[in-house]
Amino acid sequence: MSASQNQKTGNIHHKGWVKSTHFIITLSFFALTISGFVILMSHPRLYWGKAGNDLTPALFELPISRNYHHGGWDKSIPFKHLTGSQVSAARTYDIFNENGWGRSTHFLAAWFLIITGFIYFIAGFFTGHFRYNLVLQRGEFNLKLLWRDFASHFRKQAHYSGKYGLTQKITYLLVIFFLFPLVILTGFTMSPAITASYPFLLKIFFGHQSARTIHFFSAVLLVLFLLVHLVMVARSGFKRKLWAITFGK
Amino acid sequence: MNRRKAIFTGLTSAGALLLSGCLKKAPPTYGSILRMGDDLTYAAQRGLLSQRALAMEYQKSDITSFPVTDIGDPANPASKNAYSKEYEELQRNNFKDWTLSVEGCVAKPGKYSLDALKRIGARTQITRHTCEEGWSAIAEWTGVPLGAVLKDAGILPAAKFVCLYGFDKYAESIDMLDAFHPQTILAHTMNGENLPARNGAPLRLRVETQIGYKNVKYLQRIVVSDKFVDPNGDINSGWSWYTGI
After folding, report:
1. Per-domain boundaries in chain B
2. Which of A108, A136, B10, B109 is most buried (CB neighbours < 10 A)?
3. Along the 245 residues of chain B, how does pLDDT read in single tens digits?
4. Fold for domain B54-225?
5. What residues of chain A lie within 8 A of the CB of B136, using their CB?
6. Do B136 and A52 touch (CB under 8 A)?
7. Cα dihedral sign for B206, B208, B212, B214?
């Protein structure tokens, strides 16, 4: 059942469903990254906790649009009956906001990602794809082997065994079973309707703004993974590998 | 079940969900694929989530500062499109002559004063306002449940959507599930004081299961409709009408 190997090229031969789900997820991921960036541009401030806005302190702010530190606020009016220092202030600044298409593109691409990801999960379990190609075999893992395998990625000449290496397996497992579920669940946690039905989401991610910040960092890690993944694919013969994952027999 | 069958079943059920979304009086898409996605999200959230579930309510200590990011002050002639002479005069008189008009698919259309609305009922909730831009803010709101007002006006069985119009010429519509959601209120009190001017005085909508821009401020008129109406033109201007996400 394991992905077969071509003797001549050392390429792994993937099943049709692996190639087609990989293709759809790649396209959705591009759309999600671009639209996610556009959404972040309209409010490039990140917070920790239940709520956060321009009138509360931020964890950090990103200089990615004209909204960065814009400071266009009318005078602050305190709420008379509150004991804290909470205020209200009106915005006097015309912000960058392309969330009309940004949000809808993000959610449409998320539908493709979630439906395809679901099919991938089911098929991965039932065809043995996860068991044979991704799960570590007995005796495969120890720190010395991991270090040797990791270090081998920095040598000039890459080595192909025709199977996934140790570092590769661990990275794929983390991306598939940790980062993608995390980015999807923190995305759900920003939805008022979903969290009304599933309030535990707000609890496990420490609140709406914490979920948004975790969503941001897991997306950053996924983009970093994509970059390293592309470098590795390029080093092992970009055209050949790209052909193999898309059309390969 | 083999793999091909599994994939096929998955795709057909996704397709069925999409189709049911299109058939069930969903908002029009005008052929835009983004609006089709919005309708799929609307159908899925209506079909898969509990419609009575309450949005999270917070403690007094969780209350935060609250930005005002609307289209302008209706009492200020300098604000471009939001200015209303009628509103400016009502505000000058401390809203003594202000009334809320309830019209459309109701047996007893009419105008409600603030006192008349307060007699219908009250609910206080500390909830989170979630803006599409990405920020959020927590405040305590007191108001009359929209469902109670609609019942008082004798809402008719043909009613499908509720349109809410503000003096700033902003408007939104919500479906019956959100209109009768227990936390959907017409708020007249914020953090224990009369609704401050720029937070939507004297009355504003709070719909806690959707994104911030559904919460019409400076309310003037409610029209119950038997068909879909998008009074602010969200869909035509490229925005999602339903914003549960």
Report:
1. 1-49, 54-225
2. A108
3. 455 555 555 555 555 555 554 445 789 999 999 999 999 999 999 999 998 899 999 999 999 999 999 999 999 999 988 999 999 999 999 999 999 999 999 999 999 999 999 999 999 999 999 999 999 999 999 999 999 999 999 999 999 999 999 999 999 999 999 999 999 999 999 999 999 999 999 999 999 999 999 999 999 999 999 999 999 999 999 999 999 99
4. Sulfite Oxidase; Chain A, domain 2 (3.90.420)
5. 50-53, 208-209
6. yes
7. negative
